[in-house]
Amino acid sequence: MAIEYLGLSEINGPLVAVEGVRGAFYDEIVELVVEGKQKKLGRIVEINNDYAVVQVFESTEEMSLLNTHARLTGRPLCVGLSEEILGRTFNGLGQPIDGLGAVHAEVVRDVNGQPMNPCSREYPRNYIRTGISAIDGLTTLIRGQKLPIFSGNGLPHDELAAQIVEQASLGDGENEDEPFAVVFAAMGVKYDVAEYFKRRFAECGVSDHVAMFLNLSNDPVAERLITPKVALTAAEYLAFEKNMHILVILTDMTSFAEAMREVSAQKGEIPSRKGYPGYLYSEFAALYERAGIVNGASGSVTQIPILTMPNDDITHPIPDLTGYITEGQIVLERSLHQKNIYPPINVLPSLSRLMKDGIGEKYTREDHQDLANQLFSSYARVGEARDLASVIGEDELSDTDKQYLKFGTAFEKEFIGQGKDENRSMAETLDIGWRLLHILPRGELDRIDTKILEKYWD
Hints:
Elements: E1 4-6, E2 10-12, E3 15-19, E4 28-34, E5 38-48, E6 51-56, E7 68-76, E8 78-81, E9 89-91, E10 107-110, E11 121-122, E12 127-128, H1 133-138, E13 141-142, E14 149-151, H2 157-167, E15 180-189, H3 191-203, E16 210-216, H4 221-240, E17 245-251, H5 253-266, H6 280-288, E18 293-294, E19 300-308, H7 317-325, E20 328-332, H8 334-338, E21 345-352, H9 368-392, H10 399-416, H11 426-437, H12 450-456
Parallel strand pairs: 9-16, 14-19, 14-20, 15-16, 15-17, 17-19
Antiparallel strand pairs: 1-7, 2-3, 3-6, 4-5, 4-7, 5-6, 8-10, 11-18, 12-13, 20-21
Helix pairs in contact: 2-3, 4-5, 6-7, 9-10, 9-11, 10-11
Protein backbone atom coordinates (compact mmCIF):
# COMPACT_ATOMS: atom_id res chain seq x y z
CA MET A 1 0.00 0.00 0.00
CA ALA A 2 1.36 3.40 -1.00
CA ILE A 3 2.10 5.87 1.79
CA GLU A 4 0.84 9.42 1.39
CA TYR A 5 2.92 12.15 3.01
CA LEU A 6 0.95 15.12 4.30
CA GLY A 7 2.40 18.55 3.73
CA LEU A 8 5.75 19.78 2.46
CA SER A 9 8.75 21.07 4.39
CA GLU A 10 9.99 23.55 1.76
CA ILE A 11 9.13 25.04 -1.65
CA ASN A 12 11.80 26.67 -3.82
CA GLY A 13 10.84 27.38 -7.43
CA PRO A 14 10.19 24.02 -9.17
CA LEU A 15 11.65 22.14 -6.18
CA VAL A 16 9.72 20.93 -3.15
CA ALA A 17 11.02 18.98 -0.14
CA VAL A 18 9.28 16.11 1.63
CA GLU A 19 10.44 14.82 5.02
CA GLY A 20 10.01 11.40 6.60
CA VAL A 21 10.04 9.43 3.33
CA ARG A 22 10.92 5.74 3.28
CA GLY A 23 12.02 3.48 0.45
CA ALA A 24 12.43 6.32 -2.03
CA PHE A 25 14.92 6.16 -4.92
CA TYR A 26 16.53 8.64 -7.28
CA ASP A 27 14.37 9.60 -10.33
CA GLU A 28 11.27 8.08 -8.74
CA ILE A 29 8.02 9.72 -9.83
CA VAL A 30 6.01 11.44 -7.10
CA GLU A 31 2.33 12.34 -7.36
CA LEU A 32 1.51 15.67 -5.69
CA VAL A 33 -2.13 16.38 -4.87
CA VAL A 34 -2.98 20.05 -4.27
CA GLU A 35 -6.12 20.94 -2.30
CA GLY A 36 -7.24 17.32 -2.57
CA LYS A 37 -8.07 17.56 -6.28
CA GLN A 38 -5.31 18.95 -8.53
CA LYS A 39 -2.67 16.34 -9.40
CA LYS A 40 0.87 17.18 -10.43
CA LEU A 41 3.88 15.01 -11.18
CA GLY A 42 7.45 15.38 -10.01
CA ARG A 43 10.58 13.29 -9.74
CA ILE A 44 13.03 12.83 -6.89
CA VAL A 45 16.32 14.55 -7.68
CA GLU A 46 17.99 14.36 -4.27
CA ILE A 47 17.72 12.08 -1.23
CA ASN A 48 19.34 12.67 2.16
CA ASN A 49 18.29 10.07 4.74
CA ASP A 50 14.49 10.61 5.01
CA TYR A 51 14.60 13.99 3.26
CA ALA A 52 13.70 13.97 -0.46
CA VAL A 53 13.84 16.86 -2.92
CA VAL A 54 11.21 16.60 -5.66
CA GLN A 55 11.42 18.44 -8.98
CA VAL A 56 7.89 19.36 -10.07
CA PHE A 57 7.12 19.17 -13.78
CA GLU A 58 4.44 21.85 -13.55
CA SER A 59 4.07 25.21 -11.85
CA THR A 60 4.25 25.28 -8.04
CA GLU A 61 2.28 28.54 -7.70
CA GLU A 62 -0.85 26.96 -6.14
CA MET A 63 1.12 24.80 -3.75
CA SER A 64 1.79 25.57 -0.10
CA LEU A 65 3.41 23.69 2.75
CA LEU A 66 0.04 22.60 4.13
CA ASN A 67 -2.27 22.03 1.16
CA THR A 68 -0.14 19.47 -0.72
CA HIS A 69 0.06 15.72 -0.22
CA ALA A 70 2.84 13.61 -1.79
CA ARG A 71 2.68 9.94 -2.81
CA LEU A 72 5.64 7.90 -4.08
CA THR A 73 4.71 5.79 -7.10
CA GLY A 74 7.63 3.36 -6.92
CA ARG A 75 8.52 3.82 -10.60
CA PRO A 76 10.59 6.18 -12.73
CA LEU A 77 9.07 8.34 -15.45
CA CYS A 78 7.92 6.08 -18.26
CA VAL A 79 6.38 6.70 -21.66
CA GLY A 80 4.05 4.48 -23.70
CA LEU A 81 5.31 3.76 -27.20
CA SER A 82 4.17 2.25 -30.48
CA GLU A 83 4.58 3.10 -34.15
CA GLU A 84 1.54 5.36 -33.74
CA ILE A 85 3.82 8.07 -32.32
CA LEU A 86 4.90 8.91 -35.88
CA GLY A 87 2.82 11.78 -37.17
CA ARG A 88 1.91 12.88 -33.64
CA THR A 89 2.86 15.87 -31.47
CA PHE A 90 3.63 15.56 -27.76
CA ASN A 91 4.66 17.82 -24.92
CA GLY A 92 7.99 17.45 -23.17
CA LEU A 93 6.72 14.60 -20.99
CA GLY A 94 5.47 12.54 -23.94
CA GLN A 95 1.79 13.43 -23.48
CA PRO A 96 -0.20 14.06 -26.72
CA ILE A 97 -1.04 17.72 -27.36
CA ASP A 98 -2.40 17.44 -30.91
CA GLY A 99 -5.98 16.62 -29.89
CA LEU A 100 -5.89 13.16 -31.48
CA GLY A 101 -6.23 11.24 -28.24
CA ALA A 102 -3.87 8.90 -26.42
CA VAL A 103 -1.42 6.60 -28.18
CA HIS A 104 -2.20 2.89 -27.96
CA ALA A 105 1.03 1.75 -26.32
CA GLU A 106 2.64 -1.55 -27.24
CA VAL A 107 5.39 -1.10 -24.64
CA VAL A 108 6.19 1.21 -21.75
CA ARG A 109 9.79 2.37 -21.41
CA ASP A 110 11.78 4.21 -18.73
CA VAL A 111 12.82 7.56 -20.25
CA ASN A 112 16.19 7.47 -18.47
CA GLY A 113 17.25 4.63 -20.74
CA GLN A 114 20.16 2.27 -20.29
CA PRO A 115 23.79 2.92 -21.22
CA MET A 116 24.64 1.30 -24.54
CA ASN A 117 27.21 -1.45 -24.02
CA PRO A 118 30.32 -0.45 -26.04
CA CYS A 119 30.88 -4.11 -26.91
CA SER A 120 27.46 -4.30 -28.56
CA ARG A 121 27.99 -1.28 -30.79
CA GLU A 122 28.59 -1.56 -34.51
CA TYR A 123 30.89 0.91 -36.23
CA PRO A 124 28.83 3.54 -38.10
CA ARG A 125 28.80 3.08 -41.86
CA ASN A 126 26.85 4.54 -44.78
CA TYR A 127 25.41 8.02 -44.82
CA ILE A 128 22.23 10.03 -44.43
CA ARG A 129 21.61 12.51 -47.22
CA THR A 130 20.31 15.91 -46.15
CA GLY A 131 20.11 17.49 -49.60
CA ILE A 132 22.39 20.30 -48.37
CA SER A 133 25.69 20.42 -50.25
CA ALA A 134 27.83 21.90 -47.47
CA ILE A 135 26.81 18.96 -45.25
CA ASP A 136 26.60 16.12 -47.76
CA GLY A 137 29.74 17.06 -49.65
CA LEU A 138 32.13 18.20 -46.92
CA THR A 139 30.78 17.10 -43.50
CA THR A 140 28.81 14.03 -44.43
CA LEU A 141 26.38 12.74 -41.80
CA ILE A 142 26.92 9.04 -41.11
CA ARG A 143 24.24 6.71 -39.73
CA GLY A 144 24.70 6.27 -35.99
CA GLN A 145 26.75 9.47 -35.69
CA LYS A 146 26.17 12.44 -33.39
CA LEU A 147 26.93 15.61 -35.37
CA PRO A 148 25.95 18.90 -33.66
CA ILE A 149 25.21 22.24 -35.30
CA PHE A 150 26.88 25.21 -33.58
CA SER A 151 24.78 28.30 -34.24
CA GLY A 152 24.23 31.74 -32.73
CA ASN A 153 21.32 33.99 -31.86
CA GLY A 154 19.66 35.30 -35.01
CA LEU A 155 21.20 32.71 -37.33
CA PRO A 156 18.82 30.50 -39.36
CA HIS A 157 19.29 27.23 -37.44
CA ASP A 158 15.52 26.76 -37.19
CA GLU A 159 15.15 26.96 -40.97
CA LEU A 160 18.10 24.60 -41.40
CA ALA A 161 16.62 22.10 -38.94
CA ALA A 162 13.27 22.18 -40.74
CA GLN A 163 14.95 21.69 -44.12
CA ILE A 164 16.92 18.71 -42.83
CA VAL A 165 13.73 17.10 -41.50
CA GLU A 166 11.99 17.63 -44.84
CA GLN A 167 14.82 16.41 -47.06
CA ALA A 168 16.66 13.77 -45.02
CA SER A 169 16.79 10.32 -46.58
CA LEU A 170 19.00 7.24 -46.56
CA GLY A 171 20.69 8.23 -49.80
CA ASP A 172 20.10 8.00 -53.50
CA GLY A 173 20.85 4.29 -53.96
CA GLU A 174 19.46 0.90 -53.06
CA ASN A 175 19.25 1.68 -49.32
CA GLU A 176 16.73 4.50 -49.65
CA ASP A 177 13.83 2.05 -49.39
CA GLU A 178 14.75 1.05 -45.81
CA PRO A 179 12.36 2.41 -43.13
CA PHE A 180 13.37 5.91 -42.07
CA ALA A 181 11.80 8.41 -39.66
CA VAL A 182 12.62 11.57 -37.71
CA VAL A 183 12.21 12.33 -34.01
CA PHE A 184 12.17 16.08 -33.46
CA ALA A 185 12.54 17.56 -29.96
CA ALA A 186 12.39 21.30 -29.25
CA MET A 187 13.27 22.68 -25.81
CA GLY A 188 12.41 26.17 -24.64
CA VAL A 189 11.24 27.40 -28.05
CA LYS A 190 8.79 30.26 -28.49
CA TYR A 191 5.22 29.53 -29.53
CA ASP A 192 5.67 31.02 -33.01
CA VAL A 193 8.78 28.87 -33.60
CA ALA A 194 6.88 25.73 -32.58
CA GLU A 195 4.04 26.67 -34.92
CA TYR A 196 6.57 27.30 -37.71
CA PHE A 197 7.91 23.76 -37.39
CA LYS A 198 4.44 22.18 -37.30
CA ARG A 199 3.18 24.22 -40.23
CA ARG A 200 6.24 23.62 -42.40
CA PHE A 201 6.27 19.86 -41.79
CA ALA A 202 2.57 19.68 -42.63
CA GLU A 203 2.93 21.77 -45.80
CA CYS A 204 5.79 19.62 -47.07
CA GLY A 205 3.95 16.38 -46.35
CA VAL A 206 6.57 14.88 -44.02
CA SER A 207 4.54 14.96 -40.80
CA ASP A 208 3.54 11.31 -41.13
CA HIS A 209 7.10 10.12 -40.46
CA VAL A 210 7.97 12.72 -37.80
CA ALA A 211 7.33 12.42 -34.05
CA MET A 212 7.47 15.87 -32.43
CA PHE A 213 8.17 16.60 -28.76
CA LEU A 214 7.69 20.28 -27.90
CA ASN A 215 8.62 22.14 -24.74
CA LEU A 216 7.70 25.81 -25.09
CA SER A 217 9.48 28.69 -23.42
CA ASN A 218 6.56 29.20 -21.02
CA ASP A 219 6.45 25.52 -20.06
CA PRO A 220 8.03 24.40 -16.78
CA VAL A 221 11.82 24.33 -16.63
CA ALA A 222 11.77 20.85 -15.09
CA GLU A 223 9.92 19.52 -18.14
CA ARG A 224 12.71 20.90 -20.34
CA LEU A 225 15.20 18.58 -18.67
CA ILE A 226 13.05 15.54 -19.50
CA THR A 227 12.18 16.38 -23.12
CA PRO A 228 15.37 15.05 -24.81
CA LYS A 229 15.21 11.87 -22.71
CA VAL A 230 11.63 11.20 -23.81
CA ALA A 231 12.53 11.85 -27.46
CA LEU A 232 15.57 9.57 -27.35
CA THR A 233 13.55 6.82 -25.66
CA ALA A 234 11.08 6.99 -28.55
CA ALA A 235 13.96 6.93 -31.06
CA GLU A 236 15.56 3.88 -29.44
CA TYR A 237 12.26 2.01 -29.52
CA LEU A 238 11.72 2.71 -33.23
CA ALA A 239 15.35 1.92 -34.11
CA PHE A 240 16.13 -1.16 -32.06
CA GLU A 241 12.71 -2.76 -31.72
CA LYS A 242 11.10 -1.70 -35.02
CA ASN A 243 14.35 -1.78 -37.03
CA MET A 244 14.02 1.73 -38.43
CA HIS A 245 16.73 4.28 -39.15
CA ILE A 246 15.95 7.26 -36.92
CA LEU A 247 17.32 10.78 -37.19
CA VAL A 248 16.95 12.72 -33.91
CA ILE A 249 17.11 16.52 -34.00
CA LEU A 250 17.44 18.25 -30.61
CA THR A 251 17.04 22.01 -30.48
CA ASP A 252 18.13 23.98 -28.52
CA MET A 253 20.66 22.30 -26.21
CA THR A 254 21.55 25.73 -24.82
CA SER A 255 18.02 25.98 -23.38
CA PHE A 256 18.51 22.54 -21.85
CA ALA A 257 21.82 23.61 -20.25
CA GLU A 258 20.34 26.86 -18.93
CA ALA A 259 17.47 24.91 -17.37
CA MET A 260 20.06 22.73 -15.66
CA ARG A 261 21.84 25.82 -14.36
CA GLU A 262 18.59 27.28 -13.01
CA VAL A 263 17.59 24.11 -11.18
CA SER A 264 21.12 23.59 -9.88
CA ALA A 265 21.16 27.09 -8.40
CA GLN A 266 17.83 26.47 -6.67
CA LYS A 267 19.24 23.26 -5.19
CA GLY A 268 22.13 25.28 -3.75
CA GLU A 269 24.83 23.36 -5.62
CA ILE A 270 28.30 24.82 -6.08
CA PRO A 271 28.53 26.19 -9.63
CA SER A 272 31.29 25.42 -12.10
CA ARG A 273 32.25 27.23 -15.34
CA LYS A 274 29.92 30.15 -16.18
CA GLY A 275 27.60 29.09 -13.35
CA TYR A 276 26.70 25.73 -14.91
CA PRO A 277 26.73 22.66 -12.67
CA GLY A 278 29.84 20.50 -12.64
CA TYR A 279 27.87 17.55 -14.02
CA LEU A 280 26.93 19.36 -17.25
CA TYR A 281 29.42 17.17 -19.15
CA SER A 282 28.00 13.91 -17.82
CA GLU A 283 24.42 15.03 -18.57
CA PHE A 284 25.38 15.87 -22.15
CA ALA A 285 27.21 12.55 -22.50
CA ALA A 286 24.18 10.64 -21.16
CA LEU A 287 22.13 12.13 -24.02
CA TYR A 288 24.63 12.13 -26.88
CA GLU A 289 25.85 8.59 -26.23
CA ARG A 290 22.35 7.26 -26.88
CA ALA A 291 23.15 7.49 -30.60
CA GLY A 292 24.58 4.52 -32.43
CA ILE A 293 24.01 1.12 -34.00
CA VAL A 294 23.55 -2.08 -31.95
CA ASN A 295 24.62 -5.57 -32.99
CA GLY A 296 21.65 -7.64 -34.14
CA ALA A 297 19.41 -4.65 -34.94
CA SER A 298 19.10 -3.32 -38.46
CA GLY A 299 18.06 0.14 -37.26
CA SER A 300 20.15 3.08 -36.08
CA VAL A 301 19.88 6.28 -34.06
CA THR A 302 21.60 9.36 -35.51
CA GLN A 303 21.67 12.66 -33.65
CA ILE A 304 21.88 16.29 -34.76
CA PRO A 305 21.88 18.41 -31.59
CA ILE A 306 21.55 22.14 -32.29
CA LEU A 307 22.93 24.70 -29.86
CA THR A 308 23.26 28.48 -29.91
CA MET A 309 26.67 29.68 -28.75
CA PRO A 310 26.31 32.62 -26.33
CA ASN A 311 28.02 35.65 -27.96
CA ASP A 312 29.15 33.32 -30.80
CA ASP A 313 31.82 32.00 -28.43
CA ILE A 314 32.84 28.50 -29.50
CA THR A 315 34.89 28.14 -26.29
CA HIS A 316 31.76 28.56 -24.14
CA PRO A 317 31.15 25.50 -21.91
CA ILE A 318 28.12 24.32 -23.93
CA PRO A 319 29.82 23.99 -27.36
CA ASP A 320 33.14 23.16 -25.73
CA LEU A 321 31.80 20.14 -23.81
CA THR A 322 29.62 19.10 -26.74
CA GLY A 323 32.70 19.00 -28.98
CA TYR A 324 34.44 16.59 -26.61
CA ILE A 325 31.60 14.07 -26.81
CA THR A 326 30.40 14.26 -30.40
CA GLU A 327 32.07 13.24 -33.67
CA GLY A 328 32.52 16.62 -35.30
CA GLN A 329 30.47 19.78 -35.70
CA ILE A 330 28.76 21.99 -38.27
CA VAL A 331 29.44 25.68 -37.59
CA LEU A 332 27.15 28.47 -38.78
CA GLU A 333 29.01 31.72 -39.54
CA ARG A 334 27.51 35.16 -38.95
CA SER A 335 29.61 36.83 -41.66
CA LEU A 336 28.20 34.45 -44.29
CA HIS A 337 24.68 35.15 -43.03
CA GLN A 338 25.34 38.87 -43.45
CA LYS A 339 26.26 38.15 -47.09
CA ASN A 340 22.77 36.65 -47.49
CA ILE A 341 24.18 33.16 -47.99
CA TYR A 342 21.94 30.32 -46.83
CA PRO A 343 22.78 28.05 -45.11
CA PRO A 344 25.68 30.10 -43.65
CA ILE A 345 27.88 27.05 -42.94
CA ASN A 346 31.56 27.83 -42.44
CA VAL A 347 33.15 24.67 -43.82
CA LEU A 348 36.66 25.31 -42.46
CA PRO A 349 35.93 24.78 -38.72
CA SER A 350 33.25 22.21 -39.57
CA LEU A 351 34.11 18.54 -39.78
CA SER A 352 32.66 15.05 -39.60
CA ARG A 353 35.11 12.63 -38.01
CA LEU A 354 33.23 9.58 -39.34
CA MET A 355 32.81 10.94 -42.87
CA LYS A 356 35.63 8.84 -44.36
CA ASP A 357 33.92 5.61 -43.29
CA GLY A 358 30.58 6.28 -44.98
CA ILE A 359 31.54 7.76 -48.35
CA GLY A 360 33.44 6.58 -51.40
CA GLU A 361 32.85 3.99 -54.08
CA LYS A 362 30.63 1.67 -52.00
CA TYR A 363 28.44 4.44 -50.62
CA THR A 364 28.51 7.73 -52.57
CA ARG A 365 31.05 8.02 -55.41
CA GLU A 366 34.71 7.15 -55.73
CA ASP A 367 35.78 10.79 -56.14
CA HIS A 368 33.99 12.08 -53.03
CA GLN A 369 36.88 12.05 -50.54
CA ASP A 370 39.46 13.52 -52.95
CA LEU A 371 37.02 16.19 -54.10
CA ALA A 372 36.20 17.16 -50.50
CA ASN A 373 39.89 17.38 -49.61
CA GLN A 374 40.54 19.65 -52.59
CA LEU A 375 37.58 21.91 -51.86
CA PHE A 376 38.71 22.29 -48.23
CA SER A 377 42.28 23.08 -49.30
CA SER A 378 41.27 25.53 -52.00
CA TYR A 379 38.81 27.39 -49.77
CA ALA A 380 41.47 27.70 -47.07
CA ARG A 381 43.73 29.31 -49.70
CA VAL A 382 40.89 31.75 -50.43
CA GLY A 383 41.18 33.07 -46.88
CA GLU A 384 44.89 33.68 -47.35
CA ALA A 385 44.29 35.51 -50.62
CA ARG A 386 41.59 37.70 -49.03
CA ASP A 387 43.90 38.60 -46.14
CA LEU A 388 46.64 39.53 -48.57
CA ALA A 389 44.25 41.60 -50.69
CA SER A 390 43.18 43.57 -47.61
CA VAL A 391 46.81 44.59 -47.11
CA ILE A 392 48.19 45.24 -50.60
CA GLY A 393 44.99 45.60 -52.60
CA GLU A 394 43.39 43.16 -55.00
CA ASP A 395 45.07 44.68 -58.07
CA GLU A 396 48.52 43.75 -56.71
CA LEU A 397 47.66 40.07 -56.31
CA SER A 398 49.09 37.42 -58.61
CA ASP A 399 46.86 35.95 -61.29
CA THR A 400 46.56 32.73 -59.28
CA ASP A 401 45.45 34.57 -56.15
CA LYS A 402 42.85 36.46 -58.19
CA GLN A 403 41.51 33.15 -59.41
CA TYR A 404 41.28 31.95 -55.82
CA LEU A 405 39.23 35.05 -54.95
CA LYS A 406 36.90 34.28 -57.83
CA PHE A 407 36.68 30.66 -56.71
CA GLY A 408 35.88 31.71 -53.11
CA THR A 409 32.98 33.92 -54.16
CA ALA A 410 31.54 31.25 -56.46
CA PHE A 411 32.03 28.53 -53.84
CA GLU A 412 30.10 30.49 -51.21
CA LYS A 413 27.25 31.37 -53.55
CA GLU A 414 26.86 28.15 -55.52
CA PHE A 415 28.14 25.32 -53.31
CA ILE A 416 27.46 26.50 -49.77
CA GLY A 417 24.52 28.67 -50.75
CA GLN A 418 21.30 27.07 -51.95
CA GLY A 419 17.57 27.57 -51.69
CA LYS A 420 15.64 26.80 -48.51
CA ASP A 421 13.59 24.29 -50.50
CA GLU A 422 16.41 23.06 -52.74
CA ASN A 423 17.06 19.35 -52.30
CA ARG A 424 20.29 18.34 -54.02
CA SER A 425 21.24 14.76 -54.71
CA MET A 426 24.73 13.59 -53.82
CA ALA A 427 25.68 13.48 -57.52
CA GLU A 428 24.54 17.09 -57.99
CA THR A 429 26.60 18.20 -54.99
CA LEU A 430 29.75 16.51 -56.27
CA ASP A 431 29.23 17.79 -59.81
CA ILE A 432 28.92 21.37 -58.53
CA GLY A 433 32.22 20.92 -56.71
CA TRP A 434 33.98 19.77 -59.87
CA ARG A 435 32.52 22.64 -61.87
CA LEU A 436 33.81 25.18 -59.34
CA LEU A 437 37.29 23.66 -59.36
CA HIS A 438 37.51 24.53 -63.06
CA ILE A 439 37.88 28.17 -61.99
CA LEU A 440 41.36 27.27 -60.70
CA PRO A 441 44.38 26.19 -62.77
CA ARG A 442 44.57 22.42 -63.04
CA GLY A 443 48.05 22.51 -61.59
CA GLU A 444 46.63 23.80 -58.28
CA LEU A 445 44.59 20.63 -57.73
CA ASP A 446 47.20 18.77 -55.71
CA ARG A 447 44.83 16.92 -53.33
CA ILE A 448 43.18 14.72 -55.97
CA ASP A 449 44.54 11.40 -57.15
CA THR A 450 45.76 11.57 -60.75
CA LYS A 451 43.45 8.80 -61.99
CA ILE A 452 40.38 10.43 -60.44
CA LEU A 453 41.40 13.84 -61.79
CA GLU A 454 41.74 12.46 -65.32
CA LYS A 455 38.38 10.71 -65.06
CA TYR A 456 36.29 13.57 -63.68
CA TRP A 457 38.04 16.74 -64.83
CA ASP A 458 36.39 16.79 -68.24
